[in-house]
Each structure stands twice: as structure tokens, then as C-alpha cells.
Amino acid sequence: MQWPTFNVRPYVCGGIGHLDESALETLRGAGPRVRPALQAPEAALFSSSPLPPYRRDERTWAFAWGERRPVGAGAWITVAEEFETPGLIDEGGRVVLHSGGLGLVDLYYLFKDGAVYFSSLLEPLLSLARAPYEVNWDAWASIIQLTFPLRDDTPYAQVKRLAGASALVFDRASGRISTERTLPRWLREEPFEAGRTAGEILEILHDVYKEFDGRPLLVPVSGGYDSRLLCSVAVARGADVESWTTSPDDGTDTDIAFARAITRELGVRHRVIAQDAAAYPDDALAVARRLEFLTPHHAWYSPFAREVHQAGRTLVDGLAGGPLLKNFMVSGAALEASTQAERKAALLGSLALGAPSVPFLSEEASDWIGSSVRAAFAQATSMLNGHRAELPLSVLHTRTARGIARSPVNLVGPEVSFAAPFMHPAFFDAALSVGVARKAQGRFYRELLHAANPRVAALPSTNVVKQPLQRVPLRSAAAPAREYGHRMLTRVATLVPSLLSEPLHGVVADGPDALTRFNGWNDRFWVRSLVLFGAWLGDYETRLTELAPPWA
């Protein structure tokens, strides 16, 4: 296994509860090299780089390993939601292992003989799992249909991912471990429509940028709203800014043309990161492995991330801008729904892959996967039911946290520092207080962009494309990608034949060039999800139990 280089955010592992020293030693040896950060009764923490506690006294101590570190005392949920960091806290009578508020930074765990063992990478924990590993089919249902897992699911039944705003607690008096889930700040203190103007929101964003003053910044610019806003504010503050753009492999490359106009207007040094169609298979497999097969997204981002690692600049990422500022992934049906059930169904319909041109899944698999995803989505978003900001928060707690965040968190970091200004608590709360009706069709966002820089706001955007699009070849549909995709689909068809429909079995039988028929948006994402499953089977087939899916 080739591990990331943990330059900015360390790799950590350890355990709480009735720990077995041999199990700890196995865990330590299964991942990147670590050194002790804490070895105490019922608690152990190891880190790839020095990790001093942010609080320590005679009775208590507290560690965190996100990029933004807390200072001084605080309840675990306060640390989680304010700094979006996992951590380990000894409160005297109990030891608390907690995630971040949204769970952007991964924390995986496994129960074993009265203890919880944890790691910021999934693979090392498999050294403690029963072999052969039991497949978590619910996780794969969500990855295939939504492109990301839900709840605490991973592809393995024994290994879980600690969900946002959650903690595992070892009580010293009882000797038991329990799960503690609580409402983060944005749910405890439901925001109300305060009538904030675009200018007020912009002022808050300027305040957030003060944390980055003095740093050389890399602000990737696409043709959309988020990046032009973040770059405009950085330039207005006089920061040392450089901007890069790459192809999102969407078949148009409109982002590159629009970004050139935006950066020229802002007077920012601009660079286009080229991509090579011949390298796509290697990029896709490398990203799949680095993201531990949890999402088919981000293969296009791989060449860009490699260059960022050499840039010597803090990356400024627009994570969460769409859901917070322009109702991204929130359909008109969801906005107009009159019941909770209608709202939930409409939102899931927006997040799930649309119908492909031909059935990709067998009828039995499709029915089971659909039922699994509906149940998982209802559970994952149940705490948001009836909340004034239920719709954008549902997107943030699912797609943003489990799928989209992987590019800055796992591909840029942990090698390089990244900043996500929209996720800063002050901006997050202020943007959330603006009602969804004001954000419809991007109206409020356009006001915000105009307040930041009216000339940049007026330039063409991929969010509102009015001119005909020029088509360019897809890297993910070129001959090397077709050959790679066909090999992965062949593996799926061989090992789990009941997953695929007869039409898709026919396409696989016809060879790589038969995949040229799948050029539509929905088709491409279905192919990527199933190819990811095939790549995972290739890496883990010999370590899995018999592949007997629940629909077969």
C-alpha cells in the first residue's frame, strides 16, 4: 500500500477501552509509521508526526488532529463543530473519541473484545478484522447509486466510519463503550431569517480571510460562482494569489475558457493543468485506492492534486458553497413539497444517479439497492427533519461530507494545507440563515458576486450557460479509459453476475468499444460507479467472504 505523505495533517491510530497490546501493535504495524502521542490506562494514541495535546492538566488531556486546532478547554461537540476536527479527550471519568461536526476528516473504527480501535485510514483496521472480510452491501448500494456511502457504512461490515457530530465514549466506572450522537450547533440553534444583505455576508467572508493573511494562496478558478467569489475576495484583500484551472472532464472544458476571462479581469497569474487521456486508467485507480473505494468521484482531479503538492501554497477550496449559497442539488420539487415524505423523496431523487439509457442493474438488484438507499438516506438525514434549513443541510451532511470533500481533504491534504472559507463557523452560520427562497435560481449568489466584484460577476458562468457549448473529447471515455472500464466491468460481471442487467452483460460481452454508447451524463456516472466496484473486487477478492449479495 502506498500511503499519502502526512505533511500537514497527521495519520493517527490507537484505541480506547480494554485494550490488547498485541492488537495495538498489529494496528501500528499495518499503516504508516507512527510514534506514541499518548499511552494511558484505557487509551492509546499514535501519530505520524509530533502531536502535542491542546489541553493538559493533572486529570485531563485533549488531542485534535485537524488543520484548525482548538486552544484550551471545551466540550467535545464544541471542538468538533467549531474546528471540524476529530479528537481524543480524557475527561477523568470517561475517554471520548469524537469526529468533526460534519465528519469531513475521516475517522474509522472497529470493535474488538471490549475495546474500540481507530485509525484515520480504513485499510490498517482491516488487520484487526475477521478474515475473510464480510461485505457491507448497504455501503455498496449507496456508493453505486449515490456515488458515496451513508451513515457509518464502509465496504466492510466490521469497520465503520464515525459519522459527524458523533463520539465513542469509554466509561471508566462501568467499563463499557457507548455511542454518543448529538446535534451540532447549526441544529441546536436553528438559524432564522435575519435579513442579512449580500454586503453583510461578504464582510463576514473578508473577516474569515484574515486567518490566511500573509500566506501565498492558490485559488483554483473554474467557470462557476464559488471560485470566482473566493478569488475576488483574495485579490481585494491584496493577497499573493495564483490561480489554476483544469478540465473537469465534463465534455465541454467551458471552465477553462471562462476561468481565463475571470483571472484576466482580476489580474491574477493563471495556469491550466493539462490532462492526458492515456494516464486516465492509472489516475482513476490511484484515486480509487487513495479514497479507499468510497466514491467514484475525483479521477479528473488527480493531475491537479499532484501539482498542488508541489506549489508551496495554501489551497483555497469552495467546499460547501453550492448548498450554502445557491440551493445546489435542491430541486424545485423539494422546495415545493408539502410533506416530509415528498421532500425527502425529491431530495434523494436529486442526489441519486438518474436513469441510464438502458438498465444497468438487474431488476432484483435495482429493487434491493433502491430500498437500501432510501432507508439509509432517511436515517442519515432524520435529525434534519423539519429544520428550517433541512434541504441544504441534507446535501451538506451527505453528498458534501461523504463525496465532494474528498478532493481537498484526501487528495490535496494531508500533504498540503487547504482552506475552506465557506465552512468557517461564522460564514457557515450566516449563509445558513439566508432562507432557501432567497437563494432560488442563484439570485442571492448573484447579489453576493456583484457586491464582491461587479465586473467579474458579469462574466459568463458555467452556472448560467447561455451560449452553445463546444464539445471536447472526454478523457474518461477515450480508448484507454474504455479498456480499463471494460476490464473492471468484466470482473463485476464474472464475480457478481446478478448485479448487472442482461443489456449490460451484452455490452460487456461486446468488448471495450461497446462502451462508446454510454456518453450521456447519467450513463457515465453509472459506468464509473460500477467500474469502482470492479476495481475494489480486483484488490480485495481473495480477502472477501463468498460474494452472495442479498438480492440473489
TrEMBL record:
* SUPFAM superfamilies noted in UniProt: Adenine nucleotide alpha hydrolases-like
User: Which InterPro entries does its entry note?
Assistant: Ntn_hydrolases_N, Rossmann-like_a/b/a_fold
Q: Under what name is this protein listed?
A: Asparagine synthase
Species of origin: Streptosporangium carneum
